[in-house]
Amino acid sequence: MKFVLEAMAVRKVHFIEYFPIMFKTVHHLTHAAVLLAFVLPLQGNTTWAQSELWIMRGTWNTFPDSVPALRLESDSIWTGRNAAISRPADIPSSITVHNTDSLDHLCTLIADASESTLIPAGSSAIIEMPALPLGVHRLGLVDTIGDRLGAVSMVQAGLTELTADEADLFYWNLGDWNTESIWQIDAGDYTGEGESYMPNQFTINEQSYPATTEDPNGAIEVQLGDTCWIAIANHGLMDHVLHFHGFHVLIETSTHHPERIGWSKDTVPIKRGEGMTLRLIANLPGTYPVHNHNLIAVTNAGFYPGGMITHINVQP
Ligand SMILES: [Cu+2]
Residues with beta carbon < 5 A to ion ligand 1? Predict the structure, then answer.
């Protein structure tokens, strides 16, 4: 398994790309500033577009077993993937959440110390969100079944304004799962308290590799010279350490480590519960893997390659 992983390091580009990055950064900053000046006045209400979310129940077809799943979907159609919603930074807002499940659930902005909102089965509630600083935040269900079956979304605060072009904004909802305990939790007979947590599935936007590479929200498809942004939320119970092949990324926001803002890294730890925004300058053509550096996290139920791997594809 180790050897295959090492084979992924075929693109030995860390050195060559480092020198041009400073010049390109200046160039792209100028480019972005010009773009912003034109695009910002046109943005209007588009950042407020998502005013509703649906708690949906379905089946997550994973390998080798399928498990019951809950998601916060952007529509009342089961896709198996949690929505990402956007809001302007520093302005309080709200969202209506419809509970289509047969169980009551508790929903809240997860970092918020205020009380969660009960949404009875089959009804709806308005979740009030405080003014959020620029960055990535988490909104989701906090009752045990809602949380552990995976109904958690990210709230991108101010990122639409930051990126100017929605096509340059990608997102990764990170998850780790123990599929056996999901069955027990859903049946209400989970007695895992005090036991060690051993996840067997690892996901980006509720998908594992290779499906991750087909995800238009998560798999990065850009043109050479583009600057793009990646909004990341760690919804798992573990920390996740992502290694970028080919590129150094700039940490632009972090809920748990604001002192790391401005760091340029090829390996980025994302703590449990953390929201982070990364900026990537696509200054090299080709396809490069991004993967969790923890070996178990690049497997599907122990089979490599799988789990938390996706691609950055830069068209020349
Ligand atoms: Cu690597």
Answer: 243
| pLDDT confidence of residue 27 | 40
In a domain, 172, yes or no: no
Q: What is the pTM (predicted TM-score) of this model?
A: 0.84
**Any idea of the CA torsion for 147, 77, 217, 32, to the nearest 10 degrees?**
-100
Q: What's the total number of domains in the chain?
A: 2
CB 174 within 8 A of CB 309: no
Contacts of 165 (CB under 8 A, 6+ apart): 35, 39
Residue 305 sits in the same domain as residue 209? yes
Is residue 98 in a domain? Answer: yes
Q: Which residues of the chain have pLDDT under 70?
A: 1-49, 112-114, 193-194
Domain ends where: 111, 146, 162?
Answer: 162
Instruction: Give the distance (Å) from ligand 1 centre to CA of residue 291.
Output: 6
Q: How far is the CA of 7 from the centre of ligand 1 (A)?
A: 10
| Domain identity same for 305 and 288 | yes
- State in Å: Cα 176 to ligand 1 middle: 19
At residue 113, the pLDDT reads: 66
